Amino acid sequence: MTDTSRQEAALLALSPLDGRYAGKVDALRPIFSEYGLIKARVKVEIEWLLALGAEPGIAELADFSASGKAKLRALADGFSVDNAARVKEIERTTNHDVKAVEYFIKEQLKDDAELAPALEFVHFACTSEDINNLSYGLMLAEAREKVVLPAYGGIAAALRQLAHAQAAQPMLSRTHGQTASPTTLGKEIANVVARLERQIRQIGAVELTGKINGAVGNYNAHVVSYPDVDWPAFA
Fold it and tell me: What's this model's pTM, rounded to 2 decimal places?
């Protein structure tokens, strides 16, 4: 990309995070971009297919071999920007983003002797929100573990070091809008560290929930197709 095209991209950005501050959030780009969302959708679809294959109650779908499982997971783990471009190309025909992901996966599996018979189980009994809500959860979890918590941890560590270095540095404190008993710069920074580390623990403890139970949450299509499978336990 030339300097001129970079400038144009910044000027046409929808938010400062896409433009002048883009470099500050580069680590989040592969996670929260549309590419990141599509990649997460592929992962959810693949893991659902693998789970269906491992369920004995679904007689029409045999469990996959070790090499078959590896090929399926490689499709998700190795999902590239070029792959995402192909999904978007399919979407121009389907006019549906999640359906385009389903068709992309089928396109990748159709020539494989072991995986091709499983084509019609891709996206089995799912509604788009089954795929989307879990994808968002994966994206949030990845961003939290790989970017957000390490960044906050680095800030806390730097502040902790500063608190020790400035432990004896006198500092005028205030209360009720006027000067009060003296404190030290290190002690005040230590307060910030304690509060920040509490927030880090709270962010890390947030439960990311999800669902994969069909259009209205009743496992309707699941039960009609395979009434003997315990679908809530399976999900």
Answer: 0.91
